[in-house]
Amino acid sequence: MLAGVSAPAAAADPVNSWPQYGQNALHTGTNPGEHAFNTGNIANVKVVSRAHFGDNTTNHGGPVISDGKMYVTNFDGDLSVFATAGCGADPCEPLWRAHIDDGTIDSTPAVAGGLVFVASTNIHQLFAFPAGGCGAALCKAVWTGRMLDGATGSVTIAGGIAYVGDFTGHLYAFRAAGCGKATCSPLWIGAGLTNESLGTPAVGNGFVYVTSFQSTPDLFTGRVLAFSIAGCGASTATCKPSWTADIGGPGQAVAVAGNTVFTGSSTLFGDGVNTEFHLMAFAGGGCGHAVCKPIRTYFTGGFGVEGGLAIAGNVLLASDNDTIDPRFIGGVFAYSVNGCGKAQCRPNWMGLSFATAPASPPVVVDDVVLLGKGPASGFPVDSGFFTYNLRGCGATVCEPISLVQLGEQEGYLGSPLAVADHKIFMESNDNSDGHSYVYTAALT
């Protein structure tokens, strides 16, 4: 095993924080340190403040929370930092910023070891900025990492290593502390196919798992690729995946529970067969072969997984615009993590929503499920987040407990939510004034 490379903890950090996509390297979408919200009080949550991080520049990334600070990126190449406690004004302006010259960012940042990590879609580097700022309004990177192409997913931190994928099938593993120089090379590079872009990695069971969007002239589909966290030998080596699997469509999400890895995909396009089972479970250690098949699949409808996955105890959640009842529009589907005793499983319940629209990955806090969506109510063009009971409602179709509306003229791309410091954070663009905000909601 390479020096500095270790397996991630099996459980999420108990500190009340949301430092990266999915809260942790397993992408469970839960914050075990947050207990302010429950089904008895979630209907009393309202928007209490806004943080202004740009103008008409929202992206697919969401905010992260660490040590009382909120970090968010925008499509113009900015990283903006705010105090989670607010600023006494509305809206708040950043405490400080960082900027990638000529760069665009379309992902969620990650905070670890006193650094905040972002990667650009068009500048072929990983950037590590000082998480505590630099004493100035604009901060420069502490170090950067060499990449062969632009990033297509968010950075994941596990065991002191920063993982990120790119447009042409490369997965990079960098030492999160840097290399003592201004520019660092990766510890190793995982190699998929040149025609597949890689999503946000998840880490568990000694592997880095990443889904892909694989494109050919005749087919849009995807795979899951599993790489050993130890790499494959010498430093800066190029490594082949330990195993791969077809996931039935372009990759949308990956999450880990115990020794099982779950993948979500969207609709398959082109010369192939689209199924209604776009959520799959695989043995985390593989199957003893180079190409594996799922140990079970879950019904999602033909649309597939829209935003992402979450895991809370024995409940597996997927955001989904399809439905199990043609009278309703889906929002979130809930399944049993351990399956149903059959090869194909149906949802235990579906939380309905009011519009087919971009959706966030689900988030779970105690017994509450949160789901961002925009449009949320269908009319006007609003955005906001729905809340549901994690235990369902005793029926197969469940109404939301509440809808917290951010605004009536909003633009939302499905960016992830974050929950920490007794607050809920969601990014959206206010089309009435052109400002991009992170909206903060709390109990009132």
Features:
single chain, 444 residues, mainly beta, Methylamine Dehydrogenase, Chain H, five-stranded antiparallel sheet, 0% helix, globular, disordered N terminus
Outline the fold blueprint.
Elements: E1 45-55, E2 64-66, E3 69-73, E4 78-83, E5 96-99, E6 110-112, E7 115-119, E8 125-130, E9 138-139, E10 143-146, E11 156-158, E12 161-165, E13 170-175, E14 183-184, E15 188-191, E16 196-198, E17 202-204, E18 207-216, E19 219-221, E20 223-228, E21 237-239, E22 243-246, E23 251-257, E24 260-265, E25 269-270, E26 279-283, E27 296-298, E28 309-312, E29 315-319, E30 329-336, E31 344-345, E32 349-353, E33 363-365, E34 368-373, E35 383-389, E36 397-398, E37 402-407, E38 410-411, E39 418-420, E40 423-430, E41 435-443
Parallel strand pairs: 5-9, 10-14, 15-21, 27-31, 32-36
Antiparallel strand pairs: 1-41, 2-3, 3-4, 4-5, 6-7, 7-8, 8-10, 11-12, 12-13, 13-15, 16-18, 17-18, 18-19, 18-20, 19-25, 20-22, 23-24, 24-26, 26-27, 28-29, 29-30, 30-32, 33-34, 34-35, 35-37, 38-40, 39-40, 40-41
Question: Could you please describe the fold and organization of this structure?
Answer:
It is a single chain. By secondary structure, the protein is an all-beta fold. It has one domain (42-443): YVTN repeat-like/Quinoprotein amine dehydrogenase (Methylamine Dehydrogenase, Chain H). It is built from no helices and 41 strands. The strands form eight sheets. Strands 16, 17, 18, 19, 20, 22 and 25 form a seven-stranded antiparallel sheet that branches. Strands 1, 38, 39, 40 and 41 form a five-stranded antiparallel sheet that branches. It has a five-stranded mixed sheet with strand order 2-3-4-5-9, with no helix packed on it. It is globular, with a radius of gyration of 20 Å. Mean pLDDT is 95; it is low at 1-13.
